[in-house]
Design a protein that fits this description.
Serine Threonine Protein Phosphatase 5, Tetratricopeptide repeat, 482 residues, DNA Cyclobutane Dipyrimidine Photolyase, subunit A, domain 3, DNA-binding, Rossmann fold, 3 domains, mainly alpha, globular, single chain
DNA sequence: TTTTGAGTTGTTCGA
DNA sequence: GTCGAACAACTCAAA
């Protein structure tokens, strides 16, 4: 039903939340607040939109994040209107119902979404105001001396970081003017984003989706993690990483906020700068991957290097299944895959090991792994996830050379020396001595018996032999062109 | 235009 | 045990 505007009515603005689920330093929120008009915040769950559909773990996160945003908006005297369906139709209906004359939102930097949004803005018949809430450097902005986009990380970041300039963070508005009447909203319960029968999310409890949880992680990073980041980030058995990735993925915190906070810390504590720069480079990789995605919209499905199109990937459903379930017989691989399944997240070092194992030891198409990660990671990101997989495969930008094949045994011994990570996620091996925990088949029968391990029964034998697999991969990848 | 140095994260082998 | 070289060749980016 169309509301009739009376004398003195001020047309409200529609504030469309997307992957910017925060109030602090959100340019769209600031713009809506400064408009001086009533604000109607809305989130639209697009079932068949242009965006890559979020996986199950991402939807688990979204459920909590929207709840948190709704609560934060309530404190500001506002609400979050939830709708499901086609964004164009819903926004058009909302504008008609509420008399809104302006739509404010932040870009989603997936090329297909950018394209649809441009068409949507043209068709909607209301003024649109578009902001960047999720990147430090807009894709395509950083250029080489010859005016080309970068495809190698190090020169990209060397050139891009100084272009970020000084950052003035915007606070959250204390209040948002409500409209005279609220449009109808669906409920999160309607959407059923939280899994049931079975609820596989019982071990996701360490996460606190939402803006407050994001800032708690940031403060922990600044107070504790950054100082030892350079080394500790490689130790999966230690809390050495920021764990900001899922918060960044949904925009509960923006890279500007993280970058500014870490740079401020570097200024206060120059001794930390080396370690902190290592962390900032990870933020840089996120930027870099969005830069690549902007140039290659099919990053998740097409090899960046066409030479890989001819690669003879193996079809090995049972091995793929063993990989997904964490039953490969290589403890560090299995620990990673189980951590992913149980918690929706995997340590970065172990992501490389498990990805390398799938691609190089099993010769299974990187897209199989990318798809699995997309569905199971709470931080699944449309740029970073395919970018990372293509990097490991060697088909991507600035990719790893083909002969870099991670040895799952030595990687385990090097980065999980006492086996804490394996013991936690592969409990059937927990009683093995450290010397054998990354290669249980090397343990003596006495050690195995004492640890209650029966290879092939309580824990699998390796599904491939490392030396054979390495030689096979070198042969297969040889001559693909680096 | 040509040249040059460099390139996220490794492994293995032989001295 | 430690160390350096080989593992290929290519492409990028800047001088």
């Amino acid at each position: 039903m169309r509301r009739t505007k009376g004398e003195g009515d001020i047309a409200p603005v529609l504030l469309w939340f997307r992957r910017d689920l925060r109030l602090r330093d959100n340019p769209s929120v600031v713009a809506a607040f400064r408009s001086g008009r009533p604000v109607i915040p809305v989130f639209i769950l697009e079932i068949a939109g242009p965006a890559r559909p979020p996986g199950a773990a991402s939807l688990w996160w979204l459920d909590k994040s929207l709840k948190s945003l709704g609560a934060d908006l309530a404190v500001a005297g506002s609400r979050l209107v939830l709708r499901r369906g086609d964004a164009g139709t819903i926004l058009s209906d909302l504008a008609a119902q509420t008399g809104a004359e302006r739509l404010i939102y932040s870009r989603v930097y997936e090329p297909q979404v950018l394209e649809r949004d441009a068409a949507l803005a043209a068709e909607l018949g209301v003024e649109t105001e578009i902001h960047n809430a999720s990147l430090l450097l807009k894709p395509g902005r950083v250029r080489t001396g010859a005016g080309q986009p970068y495809s190698v990380f190090t020169p990209f970041w060397r050139a891009g970081r100084p272009q970020i300039g000084s950052i003035q963070l915007a606070p959250a508005p204390t209040s948002l003017t409500p409209p005279a009447a609220w449009p109808v909203s669906e409920t999160l319960a309607d959407w059923a984003l939280h899994p049931t029968s079975p609820d596989w999310s019982s071990d996701f409890a360490d996460w606190t989706p939402g803006e407050a949880g994001a800032h708690a992680r940031l403060h922990r990073l600044l107070d504790e993690t950054v100082a030892a980041y350079a080394d500790a980030r490689d130790r999966p058995g230690v809390e050495g990483t920021s764990r900001l990735s899922p918060h960044l993925a949904w925009g509960e915190i923006g890279p500007r906020q993280v970058f500014a906070a870490v740079e401020a810390l570097e200024a206060r504590a120059p001794k930390l700068a080396g370690s902190a720069d290592k962390f900032l480079a990870e933020i840089g990789w996120r930027e870099f991957n969005y830069n690549i995605l902007g140039q290659h919209p099919q990053l998740a499905t097409q090899n960046l290097k066409p030479a890989f199109d001819a690669f003879p990937w193996r079809r090995a459903p049972r091995q793929l299944d063993a990989w997904r379930k964490g039953l490969t017989g290589y403890p560090i691989v299995d620990a990673g895959m189980r951590q992913l399944w149980r918690t929706g997240w995997m340590h970065n070092r172990v992501r490389m090991i498990t990805a390398s194992f799938l691609i190089k030891h099993l010769l299974i198409d990187w897209r199989e792994g990318e798809t699995w990660f997309w569905d199971t990671l709470v931080d699944a990101d449309p740029a970073s996830n395919p970018g990372g997989w293509q990097w490991v495969a060697g088909s991507g930008a600035d990719a790893a050379p083909f002969f870099r094949i991670f040895n799952p045994i030595t990687q385990g011994e090097k980065f999980d020396p006492n086996g804490a990570y394996v013991r936690r996620w592969v409990p059937e091996l927990a009683q093995l001595p450290a010397a054998a925990i990354h290669a249980p088949w090397t343990a003596s029968p006495i050690e195995l018996a004492a640890a209650g391990v029966r290879l092939g029964e309580t824990y699998p034998e390796p599904i491939v032999d490392h030396a054979m697999a390495r030689a096979r991969a070198l042969e297969a990848f040889k001559g693909l062109g680096g």
